Amino acid sequence: MVQHCAALNRSVQVVNLDPAAEYFNYPVMADIRELIEVDDVMEDDNLRFGPNGGLVFCMEYFANNFDWLEDCLGHVEDDYILFDCPGQIELYTHLPMMKQLVEQLQQWEFRVCGVFLVDSQFMVESFKFISGVLAALSAMISLEIPQINIMTKMDLLSKKAKKEIEKYLDPDMYSVTEDSANILKSKMFKKLTKAICGLIDDYSMVRFLPYDHSDEESLNIVLQHIDFAIQYGEDLEFKEPKENEKDKSATLDEYFQDQVDE
């Protein structure tokens, strides 16, 4: 995404907030590892944390030292910043640190949008898809900010899998229920699955965008929806996604058809 924005002559800065990150193939304006690093926490004889405990400790320490981040952001002229966050789901569902970060950024007058990433290879079956949707909803409820849900690594799917996963981008949850019913044997779990799918369908809160880093149109669609969520550049003019819901579906259909034809 950083390279894509650079090709558009669009200035984007990146802040790394993953204390367990190992390397980047793009420059970062601030790196949490300058404040605290998971390896240092795990090697501390007094703490004796494992990888997960070490990560939580690092994020708690970060939440108590937001002044470090404020100092890093205070001199930035560019106003579009990507925060590269850890991938552990518990940070976004039942621990307070990321919620505290969102609230702090909002106090600094940032418009914040969450981008929830799910591996497309994990979403090609109905059971896995339902789990991914619930995880996305949990993060959305916890953070209380606009959220864009993305299926990543589309370029790694086979042609058959790409065609199969298309139905999960804007899903008919009752069709998912039927798919699950054919596999589930327990009546109790059939009812539970039906109730979950009905809840998701009734509120229509979760949709997914395909992300293929090798496809310019895919990158444009994702960036466009993020811009709309935060109304980026609204001081110049009101911005909407170029396509309405019908056009959006057509665009995604074209994307998948191109992938299948290749």
Automatic annotation (TrEMBL):
<dbReference type="InterPro" id="IPR030228">
    <property type="entry name" value="Gpn3"/>
</dbReference>
<comment type="function">
    <text>Small GTPase required for proper nuclear import of RNA polymerase II and III (RNAPII and RNAPIII). May act at an RNAP assembly step prior to nuclear import.</text>
</comment>
<protein>
    <recommendedName>
        <fullName>GPN-loop GTPase 3</fullName>
    </recommendedName>
</protein>
<feature type="region of interest" description="Disordered">
    <location>
        <begin position="240"/>
        <end position="262"/>
    </location>
</feature>
<dbReference type="InterPro" id="IPR027417">
    <property type="entry name" value="P-loop_NTPase"/>
</dbReference>
<keyword id="KW-0378">Hydrolase</keyword>
<comment type="function">
    <text>Small GTPase required for proper localization of RNA polymerase II (RNAPII). May act at an RNAP assembly step prior to nuclear import.</text>
</comment>
<dbReference type="GO" id="GO:0032991">
    <property type="term" value="C:protein-containing complex"/>
</dbReference>
<dbReference type="InterPro" id="IPR004130">
    <property type="entry name" value="Gpn"/>
</dbReference>
<dbReference type="Pfam" id="PF03029">
    <property type="entry name" value="ATP_bind_1"/>
</dbReference>
<comment type="subunit">
    <text>Binds to RNA polymerase II (RNAPII).</text>
</comment>
<feature type="compositionally biased region" description="Basic and acidic residues">
    <location>
        <begin position="240"/>
        <end position="251"/>
    </location>
</feature>
<dbReference type="GO" id="GO:0003924">
    <property type="term" value="F:GTPase activity"/>
</dbReference>
<keyword id="KW-0342">GTP-binding</keyword>
<dbReference type="GO" id="GO:0005525">
    <property type="term" value="F:GTP binding"/>
</dbReference>
<keyword id="KW-0547">Nucleotide-binding</keyword>
<comment type="similarity">
    <text>Belongs to the GPN-loop GTPase family.</text>
</comment>
